[in-house]
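Friendly challenge for the regulars: who can give me the structure tokens for this chain first? No prize, just bragging rights.
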Amino acid sequence: MTLDAEVTVDDEMTLDDGRSFPCRSGIAWILLGALLLGAGSLLYPWTERDSASAAYIGARILEGQAPYRDAWNVKGPGINFAYALSNLFFGKSAAGLRVFDLLWQTATALLLALATTRIYKNASMGRIAALVYLTAYFSQNYWNWGEADGLLSLPLAMALLFAVRAQENERLLFWMLAGVGVGIATLFKSPWGLFGLAILVAALAQEGRRVDRAVRRPAALAAGFGLSAATAGIYLFWKNALTDFWTTQFLLATEYVARLRAVASAKCVMAAFVQPVHTPLILIAAIGLWSMVTTAASRKRLSPPELLLLAWMFIAAFTLVMHGAYLAYDFLPFFAPLAILCAPPIYAAGKAVREKRRSAAWLALAALALVVPAKKIGQHYAVAVNTLRGRVEPGVWNTLGTFLNQRTAPQDRIFVWGNAPVIYLYADRLSSSRFIQTWFLTIPWRHVDYRPVFLAEFAAHRPRYFVLLKAEPEQGCAPLFPGSQETFEQFAALRNIVAEEYQVEKDEPLFRIYRQKQPGSSP
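First reply, four minutes later:
Bragging rights claimed.
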């Protein structure tokens, strides 16, 4: 029996009346599921690098500064704008970020529910897709949350939903909104502009008047995409940061990912795919892709929305390989399309259980599939409880940041030679340079040399404290950059400045703190 025989239009929703929302109880179930699955995430700290970097840049945006020009990162501008919103509405804190991420992922789940409901004409499947997505997302390790790869699922879900709506109801506004979603996703990671091409193909292939297919639909898509891209471009131009953005994203970033691919070992890449944290992804991939194969075999072809889901997964795979580091958060873009494809077989299995057909086998399989998510989400709650009870000791960077905060005035600058920008957040002090991660000052690049820029900024804003990190966080499958202590010793100009103007105040196994000498003090 094919899935088509199992799928019926749910009584909770009538598509003919133009509504795209499931009933209130369906939305309530999704919201309750998001709260239960994600509440354990709310007391986790920032990560050392990515979330801390974006939080720092987001705070600078709210203060009138600009990404790339005043606070530098190789990632796309979308993540910085998202964290600026997080800082604006929930404050510059790790807890605020976790609340923001929970709400963002809840909104993503709701859009996936709407899209699934329209694709399969069944509101129950929409709820299933939403809950599968949330379960997979919050069963990840906390350092994978709040990443660009996870946040871009919201605008992509928006693009998918409105592309499906446009295919059902010929309205140019829907095509335009689909383009807006793709444009926003592209601000997070530029390769996702390819999803716009997939939607364009769908628009050209759909039946209709020739002028709609050749002119009006493509123009509406382009207008929506251009609205997102132009808004970001105008902002960066206004802030005099467009040149820095272009250099970073289209010169340095392309060389960066090429170098990552070149040094990634095959053994490490294979190990990245079989991490325990990927178990939910493997399960939903097995269910969703098998469903797609059997559906295609029974119908002889996939529906246009299912082809869009297939394109989504192909682009996710392309981006994963192109990046080359194979970090766990690089796999997050697969979750949303696979959650949608999982909905029909899970719905069919649930119907079989309700009708007492193969119930024992199905229930055993469901229990097995939930073992890893239940364990991980239980761990998140355990961390939350221990944090509330004061049983979690502050980390080394938290302690270091507090040390710097207590010994500086609010107007003082600090600088950390290394790649733990979370220290700036714990210290609540500005960096003396835009380069809050120093990886890109450590090796020569073909198109740009940032070291003279850094030295000029360092001279203009001498830090009260200079911190040298001795140990580096792991770099995934691509150990491209040498250690901070090694690169500091090789950077003669900086080393000489520190030797002449600073003195060691504290020396620990993981870091060394230099304090600026007072005028007239002896070496």
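DSSP finds 23 helices and five strands in the chain. The first helix runs from residue 3 to 6. Your move, everyone else.
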